[in-house]
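User: Please look over both lines:
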Amino acid sequence: MDAAKEKGEASGETSQAGKEPSLEDLLSSLNLKEEDIEGMFVAKKDVEALKEEVKWMAVMRLLSSKPFSAMSLKKTMNFAWAPSKEISFREIEENRFLVQANCLGDWRKITEQGPWIFRDHGLLIEKYDGSCRASAVELNRIHAWVRIHDVPKLYRRRTLMAGVAESIGEVIQVDMNGAGLDGGDHVRVRVWLDVRKCLTRFVAFKPDGGTQVIMRVKYEKLPRFCAVCGFLGHEQEECGSGEHPVEAVKFGEFT
C-alpha cells in the first residue's frame, strides 16, 4: 500500500472527483418519475419474510463536518457499547454508517440508550429495517437527558413537566425521582433533540390567573455545541469566522 492511499484510509477521506451522483439527482437530471419506471410487484407476505432475515440494524451519522476514520469510530463505539455479540459495521458515505447487531439486547442498547459520543461529537442513530436505502434515512436527532431547574413544588407533576419539555424536544421519558424534597428543585426529562434547531435555554408556563413561571434548562452529557448560535456539531471558534465579541456568546454552560 502506498503512502498516499494509507493516509487517505487513516483519515477517512474520500475522493470527490469520482463521486457518483445520488439516485435522486440522477432521476431529477433525466426528468424521470417513479411511474415512468416499470418494476415487479412484491407481495406484503414476501416483504415480511425478508424482514426476518434483516434484523437489528441501525443507521448512524457523526455530527461533524470533519471526516473521521471509520476504523477508529468502530473501535471506540465497540468499547462504549460493550456488545455481547459481534457488531457488523460498514461506512456508507463520509461520516454515515450502517451497523447491525446480532441480538436484540445489543440493538436496543445502541438505538435506545444514547446519547453516544465520539471524540466530543454526537452520533445520530435511527433504527433501520432495510426497506429503503440506508443513505436516504433522515438523521436529524439525538437522545439527551435534560434537567428542568427552578420548578416550584406545586407544579412538579409528570404530565405538566412533559408538556413543558415539548418545547425542548420530543419527550421520551419523565423522571420524577429527583423531584422530592430531598431531590432539589429539578425534574429530569429524556428527549429527542432536533439538531436542526438551537438548544433551548429556558422553558415556561403561565397558570390561569397567575404569573409566568420561567425555568432554566441544563443538559447532561451534551456533545460539542456552539456557545454563539446554540447549535450542536461545532464550537464557537468554528462558527463563521470564529471571531465573536463577548456579548455574542449567548449559550454558556449547559451542564
In short: The mean pLDDT is 83. Strands lie at 57-62, 88-93, 96-100, 117-118, 121-128, 141-148, 170-175, 187-194, 202-205, 213-220. The longest helix spans residues 70-81. The longest strand covers residues 121-128.
